[in-house]
Write a structure and sequence with these properties.
Elements: H1 3-11, H2 35-45, E1 50-55, E2 61-66, H3 67-83, E3 91-94, H4 101-111, E4 115-118, H5 127-141, E5 145-148, H6 150-159, E6 168-171, E7 198-205, E8 212-217, H7 218-232, E9 239-242, H8 249-262, E10 265-268, H9 271-276, H10 279-288, E11 292-295, H11 297-309, E12 321-324, H12 331-340, E13 348-352, E14 362-365, E15 380-381, E16 384-390, E17 393-394, E18 401-406, E19 413-414, H13 418-425, E20 437-446, E21 449-455, E22 460-462, E23 465-467, H14 469-480, E24 490-494, E25 498-504, H15 517-529, E26 533-539, H16 554-563, E27 571-576, H17 583-592, E28 627-630, E29 633-636, H18 640-654, H19 671-685, H20 693-696, H21 700-707, H22 736-757, H23 759-771, H24 783-788, H25 792-811, E30 818-821, H26 825-843, H27 845-848, H28 852-861, E31 870-871, E32 881-883, E33 888-889, E34 896-899, E35 906-909, E36 912-914, E37 919-920, E38 923-924, E39 929-930, E40 935-936, E41 941-942, E42 947-948, E43 952-955, E44 960-964, H29 972-1007, H30 1014-1042, H31 1055-1073, H32 1076-1079, H33 1084-1092, E45 1095-1096, E46 1101-1102, E47 1117-1120, ...
Parallel strand pairs: 1-10, 3-4, 3-5, 4-7, 5-6, 9-10, 9-11, 11-12, 12-13, 25-26, 31-33, 32-36, 33-37, 36-39, 37-40, 38-41, 39-42, 40-43, 45-47, 46-48, 47-50, 48-51, 49-52, 50-53, 51-54, 52-55, 53-56
Antiparallel strand pairs: 1-2, 7-8, 8-19, 13-14, 15-16, 16-17, 16-18, 18-20, 20-21, 22-23, 24-25, 26-27, 28-29, 30-35, 34-35, 43-44
Helix pairs in contact: 1-7, 1-8, 2-3, 3-4, 7-8, 11-12, 14-15, 18-19, 22-25, 22-26, 23-25, 25-26, 29-30, 29-31, 30-31
Length: about 1200
Amino acid sequence: MNFISTVVEDLGRETGTKPQGSNQQGGTMESFSTILEALAHYSAVTPDKGVYTWVDIKCQEQRKLTFRQLEDEANAVAARLLKLGCQKGDRVMVAYPFGLEFLAGMFGAMKISVIPCSIYPPNPNQLKTDIPKFRGFVEDAGAKFALTTNTFATAMTAAGVFYKTGVTWIGTDKLPNKKQIFGKPKGHETFVGQPDDVCFIQYTSGSTGRPKGVMISHRNLAENCMALVKMTNANCSSVAALWVPQYHDMGLVAGFMSCLYGGFHLVLASPLDFIARPLLWTDMIENYQATHTCAPNFAYALLLKRLKQANRNADWSCVKRAMFGGEPAQSHVVEAVANILSIKPEHVYNIYGLAESVVYLTGGPGYSDEEGLVSCGEVDSQTLKLRIVDDGKEVKDGAVGSIWAQSPRVAAGYYGQKELTASTFGNVLPNYEGSWLHTGDLGKIVDGQLYVTGRLKDVIIINGKNYYPTDVELSIDDSFGDAIRPGRTTAFQHGEDGVGITAEARKDFDRAANEHLAVKISNHVAQMHGLTVCEVLILKVGVTPKTTSGKLKRALIRQTTLSGDWKSSSVLLQYERQTNMSPFEAYLHASLGESFAVASNSQAFLLEDDQDEDETADHPFDEAIKCEKRKEGKTVRFGDDFSKRWSTVLSSVLGPDDDASKTWMENGITSLKSAELRNKVEEELHVSLPSNFEQLYPTPSELASFLMASEAQGFPKHAVGSKEYEWNTSRSKISKPVLGVLQALGSVAIILLLLISTAPSYFLTSWAMEQCDSTGEGECRRPIFWLVLPLVFPLFLLSFSLAVVLSKSAVIGKYRPQQFDLLSKDYLRWWFVDRHLEIWESFVGPFIVETKYIWIFYWLLGADLPWTAKIESFIRECDLVRVGDSATIAHPIRCRKFSQTDTCPKMTFRPIIVGKNSHVSGMASPGSVVGDGSKVEKLSVVEEGAELPPGILAKGIPAYNSGTYKHAKPSWQEDVFLDAFKIAWTIIEVYHFFALSYLVHSFLNVILPSWRYATILHWLVLFPATSFLALIPSIALKWFFIGKRNPSDEYEGSLWRKATNWACDFHFRIASWSQTPFFGQTKLWHIILFLHGLDVDMASCISNPYRIFFPSKVDFVKIRKSFVATSTVDLDQKADSKMEIINSSVGYNSNLHSGVKIIRSKIPPRSDVRDNITELNQAGKSWQPSLIMDMILPEFLQLLLNVVIFASLIPAY
């Protein structure tokens, strides 16, 4: 806890700056009476020195904050609060997500004598339970405003419609900097706080009971910081590393405040990132050569465990103080830290303190006594007296009693609770003057050293965090009052890391109806309070021991439960957990907040959280689902090696008694265990799980089926874009309003460019009409007319394509590896060209993809493409793309990514290299290299900068080496024939569609009535009617060229079969292109696909079926009473039978392979299904479609949509 003291002791040894109490070259550091005085001093003397650095889970620097920046940001918050009418003594909630942003809120409030109350913000995913707790803090403090980030303020303001928080949320991370507040230059404001003013309120507890807010004065805080600096002998060149939560007293005071007071550098990370990857801590120490660090005992134990598992040696020889705080240190852990981490034993300190003393009372080298207790430091100094008291009198050395403290570091009391303040802070000890703090801890003094032995109160203590039994008991009574008697519930400490619960049943208790009550109470306490329940007893009426005054005999109840001395007739129900929560989970639940949920901070665990939404595959599962049904139930078959690895991962998180057939909740999963499991799976099996994997896969068995065969080795990172290329950072900044105006003008320019692109088509049409020898009946019989007029639409495609090429050359020139801010001219240029390309991909791309026309287009844009390359998808930033001979691009290529920094979001451009004979069906991230003859499978993601070796098959997210890939290279004669055939066929399609459109045009001229808006209706109907009419030839082509196909047919690879399959699929794709807005989701497509050969019933629902099933493969599929979202059906491999989807649902963007059977199952989005699945996730009863709701109503709504489209065109007409 006395992290700062520690930090200071060694800080003073290594710097030329002179901290107070540190003898260095004959000088001393200045002392400060308030923390604001320290900030003003450093912002004036060393304004550009970094005081805080925030790193991510990979120990990559995300933000650095200097003294000047902190001063300016605090001034901005202070000015904002003054404008809101805040007065001296007002309270304001400081509730920020993890990061450096909360510092501006804390110091900004202090600057105008507004009292900040630091607490963790409500979890957006658990507002129902978190808001009442938060509102309890607000009501106790009497606050009107809550400071937080802009993003969180927006979210909470919106949530306020349903959940009243009682405060106005103020975002502070985008306020304009204020150089001054009171008329003087920054760094010289007249107000720096008065020593006895309340500096901030530190809340220690409160869920259903009244919160306790400890009032910390400026003097208390300064004394604490000074004591820590003296104890650690730190100086201005020291570096501290910390990840403890910012709203915990150890993180706030011993970390943030003390480092600022001492003027040294603090490297920080989110506790979420530490839990997900404990090795982050040692990365911080080693990368920044930290001299000081502090954490609870559990964290050191966890780190040592992970170092052993990773077979990694940590070098902490740079550390001068490794401090234990927040919970009792264990002697064997203290010894292991010194031995394994290469720290001198005298540099390992144990710290004692509590929130009522701000954070720190005493500390020193941690030496063990005969009982295994670890010393906590000296009990007497100039500013501290610690005594052991029993029955109001001091006891002799060695005797155990209550720890009392007297020091200027002790807080003034609890906010608004005079009686509790008097009983805790106002105690009198004979033979001593002044008031004493009753800490509530038990201890002893031996040879002037303090040893903490336990707790005096009934408080439940889990790894340094207090949980009050009444809070737990009241929440149980409120939730289960219909089955148990209120006021007869008892919660108590059960071992080191858990709690025990007893509850008394009502007289009318129905044992059969409440057979799972004990388990429900256990789950409730875990969810509401973040505690592991080791035992729950439901007792008979009248069994609970009580005093004559009606109070519960807590000590007797606890003793009877732990010893198992309850009579069997007294216990109605019992729940007992064999494996307790591991210490690190309990602590994080304690210090991060009782309702903490890892899912609310998912950015900490995503491998690529800065990708474009349309580019990032966020589902981790990429291998076969292998699941079968046996008589005794569902089981999962997998290889022995995977079985051992998965079993090790699961048991390391859930304990040795895990049951793969039970739900995660029944296995005792918590949000923290969830984070640990995700990290372990990523480390051991190389798969990134989504944050809601418990909902997607309710049991470990079901999760295992998706993880099968996924564990493998990742790829080395390639340095392209960071070493071989020079990175250019743009300086051409523009403001947000200017950017918005220029983008609006750019949108207009794009529309004008589209209109200009129609000019050649217009002139060609006019010329063709002039050449037409029209008869009196209005018919044209000149061949030139029929030869030229069909080229009008292709000419538009050509004109617009050339316009895109010219605009790219004029606006950007050539893409290059670089990085620039989003508020810059470079971004505006990129945005303008990228919008052109996006429109081109919608209106031109579908007609020329997979042909040499698209090759020519991308070649003109600057892509390095050989003639033999096959382009089956779209490419952006073409100058940065290099493709080898005979390579296939079957997934969009994007050479850019967005990233968030402390100032402005940035865009980074890095090249992508695809080797010869390679095949890219998955996502290749910027900077990646796909080796010659390698393949990236569907739903896979090659990490940024990763380099794939030649000849491998890459799968997964992130992609890993799953074996070898054999590329079957076709002969050059075959390639030439197919390319020529495609060019010829596209020409045929041009005249074919013109003929159909002419027929529809003539027909509409005859049947449409003479109406004012007939012209609108004519052109509105023309395009979908032409496309619909083209589906009739599509059916004919399928049966003429392909016929009825069987999955085991051998002629798939013949040259003629490839050509005709492509021709049928191309015609079908073009014919269905304009149908999307008019008949996109109607059952009409079921009939059309049935006529093409798809075995489908009308009871099924298929989203965008024309994007899933194509004529060449529809014979291979059977669908009955199922829902199929837009997915990929991979039917290129031969199979013995059809693919069948029966009474099931298939999630979005899943990949289904040939011949699989999906029976009564739910397939999550982005799954790769290679094997049969039966009754996975239990889709439930067969869907019985309603004639009205599922048949007639959707068709009516689609018709209504078409009417709305027609009506919307009338004003423009």
